[in-house]
Amino acid sequence: MALLHEDPRAGATSNAPRWNLKGNVLLQSFPLLEAMSVVLLSIVSGMVYDLVSFGHFGEYGRNFGLGVVVAALFSTSAYARGLYLSSEPRSLASQIKEVVLIWTGVFLCLSVVALALKVGDMFSRQAVMLFFVTGVGGIIFVRLGAGRLFASLTRSDMLAKPQVVIVTQSDVRVPSGVVQAIEASGCDVCQTITLPAASSEGSLLECMDKLIEHVRRRSVDEIVLAVSWADISLIEKITAHLCVVPVPVRLLPDHVVSALLKRPVVNLGGTRAIELQRAPLTAPQLLTKRLFDLVLTTAALPFLLPPLAVVAGLIALESRGPVLFCQRRAGFNGRTFKIYKFRTMTILEDGPVVPQACRGDPRVTRVGRILRRFSIDEIPQLWNVLKGDMSLIGPRPHALAHDSEYSQIISLYPARHKVKPGITGWAQINGCRGATPHVYMMIKRVEHDMWYVNNWSVWLDVTILLLTIPRIWTGRNAF
Fold first, then answer.
1. What is the C-alpha separation between 269 and 162, in angstroms, rounded?
2. How many CA atoms lie within 13 A of 397 on its CB side?
3. Nearest in space to 266 (alpha carbons), one of 252, 283, 254, 280
4. Sheet strands (E) in 79-206
5. What is the pTM of this model?
6. Range with lowest mean pLDDT among 40-44, 155-159, 193-197, 403-407
7. Does residue 62 carry a pLDDT above 90?
């Protein structure tokens, strides 16, 4: 992204991206910040004009609409002109020139449209002129400040480099230029794992377990395979083992097939690799989903706190013990976290064996039976959402004892952890709710969870959220 920041290396040619991959997560949110600034400046300009001219604030709805239209036109034009995505640093003067030209062009176009539709009288010319002047200055200020911020973070290494693990064979030589190319792209090769020349199934499994543990412990961002393409069986086995981690897995071409590649390839620094697996959600999608969770959760909590206090009082009056029940669950990337629920049983189980609740279960209290029937006991998990352990929508997390059991039976079960677990999910609104006394019931739940992982969208989350309440009232599988 060509933010307003003077680069001391300007004029030098380099194929390396200016920011590392984690820095790009922040950069990709910049167009939204810039658009919000434009809308805010439109409202403020109109309010200032009304205050100076009439001595009071006027109605700001029109100014808000004007700001939205201008922000949309400016962002679209700026993107087309390469002001958001640029492979080479752009000088400060060049960016200011582009901003002024695009901003002026947007207002000229709107002026022509206003004259053609005869709606110019709806807006004060003085207010529009004030918006024009403050808007272009505001955009330059925002871009300059953001550019300096990102540059400062990069120099101080606060934007940690993405961690890359290379997996290779003892009889396959990794070209020396590959590591340099990966590191030149802003990544850090944190470990190179060498597989035995003639690895048995047991030794390969042990090696993959160590790799998965390393990925989860070190928060690895990418896995690169440098193995012989002739050993298709090995590649398939490695891919099958790594399907449980939510990181991209890429295969480097060997010297035999590099000239024969016809499949789409991805750039990996100065070299190329075939993408065998993608992270389920891209960085912008993860940011969107997180904002979706935070906005809805913070908006709902003030209304939920009074009835939740009543529920807590009923639980305390009926039986001794804590109001909240904490249990360890496996979350994103298999990492363990403590989930919060209203206590609905007379016991608190979190060991190697956790029997599932069944109809007429004597462990369930009278209040707990009502809470479980309508899933009210799950509402405290909003705190897990705020903490970032969970999402509003996602595969339901199970007790660690159940995870251990079903991971041995269902091969795709651990792949549910490629996204954050949710309070509700696609499986739940499709009837897969409650106990799973038969394996086929869990298989069906996993199939729904994997469909959600592979087909996520904001509208899918909205659909699941809207369908959750009617499904709770009509469902009969929670005991």
1. 12
2. 32
3. 252
4. 163-169, 188-195
5. 0.60
6. 155-159
7. no
